TrEMBL record:
<keyword id="KW-0862">Zinc</keyword>
<feature type="domain" description="Cobalamin-independent methionine synthase MetE C-terminal/archaeal">
    <location>
        <begin position="429"/>
        <end position="750"/>
    </location>
</feature>
<feature type="binding site">
    <location>
        <position position="112"/>
    </location>
    <ligand>
        <name>5-methyltetrahydropteroyltri-L-glutamate</name>
    </ligand>
</feature>
<feature type="region of interest" description="Disordered">
    <location>
        <begin position="396"/>
        <end position="415"/>
    </location>
</feature>
<keyword id="KW-0486">Methionine biosynthesis</keyword>
<dbReference type="InterPro" id="IPR013215">
    <property type="entry name" value="Cbl-indep_Met_Synth_N"/>
</dbReference>
<dbReference type="Pfam" id="PF08267">
    <property type="entry name" value="Meth_synt_1"/>
</dbReference>
<protein>
    <recommendedName>
        <fullName>5-methyltetrahydropteroyltriglutamate--homocysteine methyltransferase</fullName>
        <ecNumber>2.1.1.14</ecNumber>
    </recommendedName>
</protein>
<feature type="binding site">
    <location>
        <position position="563"/>
    </location>
    <ligand>
        <name>5-methyltetrahydropteroyltri-L-glutamate</name>
    </ligand>
</feature>
<comment type="similarity">
    <text>Belongs to the vitamin-B12 independent methionine synthase family.</text>
</comment>
<feature type="binding site">
    <location>
        <position position="601"/>
    </location>
    <ligand>
        <name>L-homocysteine</name>
    </ligand>
</feature>
<feature type="binding site">
    <location>
        <begin position="433"/>
        <end position="435"/>
    </location>
    <ligand>
        <name>L-methionine</name>
    </ligand>
</feature>
<feature type="domain" description="Cobalamin-independent methionine synthase MetE N-terminal">
    <location>
        <begin position="4"/>
        <end position="311"/>
    </location>
</feature>
<feature type="binding site">
    <location>
        <position position="486"/>
    </location>
    <ligand>
        <name>L-homocysteine</name>
    </ligand>
</feature>
<feature type="binding site">
    <location>
        <begin position="16"/>
        <end position="19"/>
    </location>
    <ligand>
        <name>5-methyltetrahydropteroyltri-L-glutamate</name>
    </ligand>
</feature>
<dbReference type="Pfam" id="PF01717">
    <property type="entry name" value="Meth_synt_2"/>
</dbReference>
<dbReference type="InterPro" id="IPR002629">
    <property type="entry name" value="Met_Synth_C/arc"/>
</dbReference>
Length: 757
């Protein structure tokens, strides 16, 4: 009989219960017992849903209060010394300290999980790093599910992936892969204990099989699974996802484990090849349901793939599942009562994907639900033929875009002279990335306006008041380039998507980005255009309140698409070009409204980079062209800024330079300015704002800490091209943290300015 499985389920709850409980705990409004009770209830509900759907292999340990990589670090005792952990009593507070920092310890670096918008906490390694099995979460949750009558399949990040994603932080020259033996020994202990506890399966995620691997990584993989294969009483499943195996196929298929999982959405062409290479005992899990997007699966097409694989290995060794964890999907469509029936019939969230998995598994055993298959076939046809998807005018405009539309009038050096004359800014100019705290008062007013209980005039007056307060605060602090604060905006993608044709929005379609930060990605279902101006009203109003330059704030085309659920019926590059043209219209209108500087955030530019280097050039070519298409419609004396979050830039620095933004701001505080190395080695020609204030942590850095970071920056960058700014927008922080931190930042810039005079 074909087996159905899931690789992971959304942990956040249908109504963001996890976010509410976690933030209440941080505020002191909920004790640890209450937080853990919320987690237990979410796990119970998730396991019950999967069992009810008919999933055979249900995961455990896919739940986390923050991040699964952080959870692994805590399980194996890899806690940096600065957090003062005594080696015992591993608990949730240790994890939260690592994730959020303390007043005396900078939080662990955070970056993107492969090419997703999910973030993980980067493991840190030093000469003193040791690994020991000190946590119990993976065992506790297995026992918890077993008490509910469900024997789950525990899940954990694999040793090769963990070492690959970590970084050496002590400058010792340590080769982090030299830690493999110690780490593998702990994995063996975990597998042995799970076997003793009655676990039948252990899923070990090794998504680095979708990357270009070197000989050292390959050796670690071979050693790890040779040892794990010797553990009696438990079947090991190694899961790869997010891409094709390509040149890693031989290594992957030769692993001495019970089962392998492949991503048959991104690696569809490899499914039959992998199946043909397996020995006669090994199971193959085919991830045929897209875990990263929200469109219904074409069940007829998926079943054809499964039948081909079954022809190679038989039904008894066939497992059907999603391409990756459903962590990246919203929880359920059941709550989306405001979506029209036609549109809703095109979609499948996590719960609906469970039904698709079970349908495919049953159909592989000739138990076909003909009613479901017929309905699915009709939904596929309805979507393909729908008039709401296609706009001929948008397509014609995208096709007509030419090289001249992607060029500024003069090179940067000439533009810089005219911009500096116009802006008249001092050395070390200060600014922020755009947003200010979205307080309960702001969120309440926006919600009331959306519901219709706060009239337009009253809401506008409220926003005018908040913008005026923000402008005055920035002027009083001494900021050089101001922002309006974005109080009218819900999310940097959602706000724009709501005003663009071709976008749709859910009410409860939340997914986790990191910790308690959730996003509600828009759905790009059709051709994209801008019916009318989106930001000009409030940017123009803010500029009217001050003689200082006001920066217009926009989200860039790559990020607008990368952080959405994207249509799958045309190349992503085409969708990004359409969005770029819509953003271009807004840029031109902001300039006409008197804005001398416009920031086009491309926080996801690096995130969108393909996992394989062989695919980079094609992506970078169209991604850079689309940014330039969005930004190059302005005069030379209008300053274009961009912002990028949590990105390793070394490999793509030339492409970033090709974007030709006048100023780029980047995250550098958690990495202690390490990310600037790329800009130094390449001799980045334009202006840079290295973030000196980590906004993802509640700690308030003092002036001297920021001065030291800026000194590090000016050791490698020309001081005349350095801006002073936070790492990112401030919407998720509170004013009690933001005001002193920003004051320290401005004071730090003033002190360096005075010393340079």
């Amino acid at each position: 009989m074909t087996i159905s499985q899931n690789l992971g389920f959304p942990r956040i709850g249908e109504r963001r219960e996890l976010k509410k409980a976690t933030e209440a705990y941080w505020k002191g409004d909920l004790d640890r017992a209450g937080l853990e009770a919320t987690g237990a209830e979410l796990r119970r509900s998730n396991w019950a849903k999967q069992k009810s759907a008919g999933i055979d292999l249900i995961p455990s340990n896919d739940f986390s209060f923050y991040d699964q990589v952080l959870g692994l670090s805590c399980l194996i005792g890899n806690v940096p010394e600065r957090f003062g952990w005594d080696g015992s009593n591993m608990n949730i507070d240790v994890a939260f300290d690592m994730a959020r920092g303390t007043q005396g310890a900078i939080a662990c670096e955070m970056t993107k999980w492969f090419d997703t918008n999910y973030h993980y906490l980067v493991p840190e390694f030093t000469q003193n790093t040791t690994f020991n099995l000190v946590g119990s979460k993976i065992f506790d949750e297995f026992a918890e599910a077993k008490a509910q009558g469900i024997t789950t399949k525990p899940v954990m990040v694999g040793p090769a992936t963990y070492l690959t994603l970590g970084k050496v932080t002590d400058g010792s020259g340590l080769n982090k892969f030299d830690l493999a033996d110690s780490l593998i020994d702990v994995y063996v202990q975990i597998a042995e204990k799970l076997a003793a506890d009655g676990a039948e399966w252990l899923q070990i995620d090794e998504p680095i099989f979708s990357l270009d691997l070197d000989d050292t990584q390959r050796a670690v993989i071979e050693k790890a699974y040779a040892k794990l294969a010797q553990v009696d009483g438990i079947k090991i499943m190694v899961a790869n996802y997010f891409g094709q195996l390509a040149d890693n196929m031989e290594l992957f298929t030769s692993l001495p484990v019970a089962a392998l999982h492949i991503d048959a959405v991104r690696g569809l062409k490899e499914a039959e090849v992998v199946a043909a290479r397996l020995d006669d005992e090994k199971y193959l899990s085919v991830g045929i349901i897209d875990g990263r997007n929200i469109w219904k699966t074409d069940l007829e097409r998926a079943l054809a793939t499964i039948e081909t694989v079954k022809g190679e290995i038989g039904a008894e060794r066939l497992i059907v599942g999603p391409s990756c964890s459903l962590l990246h999907s919203p929880v359920t469509l059941r709550s989306e009562t405001k979506l029209d029936d036609e549109f809703k019939n095109w979609l499948a969230f996590a719960e609906e994907k469970l039904d698709e998995i079970v349908f495919i598994a049953n159909a592989a055993d000739s138990k076909i639900d003909k009613t479901m298959l017929a309905a699915n076939k009709q939904a596929m046809a309805d979507r393909a033929d729908s008039a709401r998807i296609h706009d001929a005018a948008v397509k014609r405009r995208a096709e007509a875009a030419a090289d001249k539309d992607m060029q500024r009038g003069a090179p940067y050096a000439d533009r810089a002279a005219s911009q500096h004359a116009k802006l008249d800014l001092p050395a070390y100019p200060t600014t922020t990335i755009g947003s200010f705290p979205q307080t309960q008062e702001v969120r309440k007013a926006r919600a009331a306006h959306k519901k219709g209980s706060l009239p337009d005039a009253e809401y506008d007056a409220f926003l005018e008041e908040k913008i005026a307060e923000a402008v005055k605060m920035q002027e009083d602090m001494g900021f050089d380039m101001l922002v309006h604060g974005e109080f009218e905006r819900n999310d940097m993608v959602e706000y724009f998507g709501e005003q663009l044709a071709g976008y749709a929005f859910t009410k409860f379609g939340w997914v986790q980005s990191y910790g308690s930060r959730y996003v509600k990605p828009p759905i790009i279902f059709g051709d994209v255009s801008r019916p009318q101006a989106m930001t000009v009203k409030w940017s123009k109003y803010a500029q009217s309140l001050t003689d200082k330059p006001m920066k217009g704030m926009l989200t860039g085309p790559v990020t607008m698409v990368q952080w959405a659920f994207v249509r799958d019926d045309q190349p992503r590059s085409e969708t990004v070009k359409q969005v770029a043209l819509a953003i271009r219209d807004e840029v031109v209108d902001l300039e006409a409204a008197g804005l001398a500087a416009i920031q086009i955030d491309e926080a996801a530019f690096r995130e969108g980079l393909p996992l394989r280097r062989a695919d980079w050039d094609a992506y970078l070519e169209w991604a850079v062209e689309c940014f330039r298409l969005a930004s190059c419609g302005v005069a030379d004396d209008t300053q274009i800024h961009t912002h990028m979050c949590y990105s390793e830039f070394n490999d793509i620095i030339e492409a970033i330079a090709d974007m030709d933004a006048d100023c780029i701001s980047i995250e550098t505080s958690r990495s202690q300015m390490e990310l600037l190395d790329a800009f130094v080695q390449f001799k980045y020609p334009n202006e840079i704002g290295p973030g000196v204030y980590d906004i993802h942590s509640p700690r308030v850095p003092d002036k001297q800490e920021m001065i030291e970071l800026l000194k590090k920056a000016t050791e490698v960058l020309p001081a005349e091209r350095v801006w002073v700014n936070p790492d990112c927008g401030l919407k998720t922080r509170g004013w009690a943290e933001v005001e002193p931190a920003l004051k320290h930042m401005v004071d730090a810039a003033r002190e360096l300015r005075a010393k340079a005079a």
